[in-house]
Automatic annotation (TrEMBL):
Similarity annotation: Belongs to the tRNA nucleotidyltransferase/poly(A) polymerase family.
Biased composition (Basic residues): 438-447
Entry-linked HAMAP family: PolyA_pol (MF_00957)
Annotated gene: pcnB
Protein name stated in the entry: Poly(A) polymerase I
Organism ancestry: Bacteria, Pseudomonadati, Pseudomonadota, Gammaproteobacteria, Moraxellales
Alphabetical keyword list: ATP-binding, mRNA processing, Nucleotide-binding, RNA-binding, Transcription, Transferase
Length: 493
């Protein structure tokens, strides 16, 4: 173990936010050991701006709670740790961990529970990369380096602690972390990792919960190095595990959107990771829409159904939260509205909550060579910067061209129009499907005083005094009348 002088590596207590110092000081005062560890130390050493600071201590989560009281919450089951809230900051405080006990490891070697407390020497070996395993005590001004991490910092090498194959089997998410840190820090991946990081190894990611994978995908999208990470995801076979149905091809649209996202992050603008999901899934959405059009659905229904289908498929890999799904479907729907707006709706469209994202998406499509936007990306780009008079003139000109186009196409498919009572009002972009879970139905029944469809159907015999259908779920299943003459009996029936 080497004890390094922090100041020699550019680290000083003055560079730390008060929240992390308060956590370290409070734990030390209570008689515990406490260090800053992980990305915070690593990024400071590399001269980068750390995203946050994590602490580690020999106090158990319950002891951390007794130090910080109501400012502390214990979270996690698989990996229990304490969240300490200092002002507006949240500091994660982990407890030194020993190797997990055998009985909490799956048949594939994956660690299912990791709450075996230990010493700092045991803790460093449980961390993923050498560069993430440096312990910084800011009051003492020292860094503890157990694995010559400083050499890897200098040679810009990402090295896993221990046997790489075993470490990936224990937690396959480390494969994603390998690619993420390599792209983010511009570090080379060590040879012993490269030799075992095969497409077969990447398949272990199938055992990871789609919730955790969604969180990881967000980190990949928001670290500011999408352009670097995307080819790595494809080369290492990780793409297929994260996005099963998306072709592993970096078309112009994806590349341009990645570049745009990275640039936004670089200049400190906010980004919504759901936007990049909308980009990645766009081709699938178009294909699926065509599928429903071919089946004879009207365009609006085809799009709505296609959007739901595509997102449902993606959720088998990364569970996209409901609000993000709605955002994605709205961005897609905006494409149709912006492509062919009714003249009287143009101004309200430009102040719609989803206009900005929809317009950015349209412009990126156009700039990447998509002819289907018919130049409307540029049109909206110009429109937004016009004076009121110029806007009116632009709308009149657009209207004349639109009428001409309609005459030309009237013999073909009619242009899609959305009808509303108020000609300037914008129809909702997506209609949310009703939450059909049993709990949601019950709470709705309670709210509305029992007028849901199910309740009406079962009103006579199956409702209790609250108007809720309380039969056993199996009895509530709708019986489907099947015409047996039309059923084809296959081997499984
Ligand atoms: P950043 O926060 O910049 O993304 P980080 O290295 O701080 O990077 P965190 O996810 O915040 O990453 O984790 C903090 C530390 O916990 C890591 O530096 C590492 O030491 C340890 N760690 C996190 N995830 C794992 C893992 N899957 N396996 C082993 N150690 C891990
Ligand atoms: Mg961190």
């Amino acid at each position: 173990m080497h004890t390094l002088r922090a100041s020699k590596y550019g680290l000083s207590i003055k560079k730390l936010p008060p929240s992390i110092i308060e956590v370290i000081d409070a734990l030390s005062k209570a008689g515990y050991e406490a260090y800053i560890v992980g990305g915070g130390v690593r990024d400071l050493m590399l001269g980068l701006n750390p995203k946050d600071f994590d602490a580690v201590t020999n106090a158990t989560p319950a002891q951390v709670k007794s130090v910080f009281g109501r400012r502390c919450r214990i979270i996690g089951r698989r990996f229990e740790l304490a969240h300490v809230y200092i002002g507006r900051d949240l500091i994660e405080v982990a407890t030194f961990r020993a190797p997990p006990k055998k009985e909490v490891t799956s048949a594939q070697g994956m660690i299912l529970r990791d709450n075996n407390w230990g010493t700092i020497e045991q803790d460093f070996a449980r961390r993923d990369f050498s560069i993430n395993a440096m312990y910084y005590q800011p009051r003492k001004g020292i860094i503890l380096d157990f694995c010559n991490a400083i050499a890897d910092i200098k040679s810009k090498t990402l090295r896993l602690l221990g046997d790489p194959a075993k470490r990936f089997e224990e937690d396959p998410v480390r494969m994603l972390r390998t690619l993420r840190f390599s792209a983010k820090l511009n570090f080379k991946i060590s040879d012993d990792i490269l030799s075992i990081f095969t497409v077969d190894m990447a398949m272990l990611l199938r055992d990871i919960s789609p919730h955790r994978l969604y969180d990881e995908s967000q980190k990949l999208f928001t670290m500011g190095q999408l352009q670097r990470i995307l080819p790595l995801l494809i080369d290492f076979g990780v793409w297929k595990q994260l996005f099963a149905d998306i072709q592993p091809i970096l078309n112009n649209f994806i590349v341009l959107a990645a570049k745009n996202t990275d640039q936004r992050i670089q200049v400190g603008k906010t980004i919504n990771p759901a936007f990049f999901y909308a980009v990645l899934l766009w081709e699938n959405f178009l294909e699926r829409t065509q599928f429903y059009l071919n089946k004879g659905l009207v365009p609006a229904e085809a799009r709505a159904q296609a959007g739901l289908d595509v997102l449902k498929r993606q959720c088998t890999r990364t569970v996209i939260p409901r609000f993000a799904e709605t955002f994605i479907r709205e961005v897609w729907e905006m494409q149709t509205r912006l492509l062919n707006p009714k003249p009287q709706q143009i101004e309200s469209l430009s102040s719609h909550a989803r206009f900005r994202a929809g317009f950015d998406f349209l412009l990126l499509r156009e700039k990447s060579g998509d002819q289907d936007t018919e130049g409307m990306g540029h049109w909206w780009d110009v429109y937004q910067n016009l004076s009121i008079d110029e806007k009116e003139a632009a709308i009149s000109k657009y209207n004349r061209q639109r009428v001409k186009k309609r005459r030309r196409t009237s013999s073909e498919a009619p242009l899609e129009t959305v009808t509303t009572a108020d000609p300037q009002a914008i129809e909702p972009l997506v209609v949310e499907k009703e939450n059909t879970s049993r709990r949601a139905r019950r709470s709705k029944a309670r709210r509305t005083g029992m007028t849901t469809a199910t309740n009406v159907r079962t009103a006579d015999s199956n409702q209790n005094s609250t108007g809720i259908d309380d039969r056993h779920p199996i009895l509530k299943r709708k019986r489907v009348q099947r015409d047996l003459a039309q059923v084809v009996f296959g081997p499984t029936q």
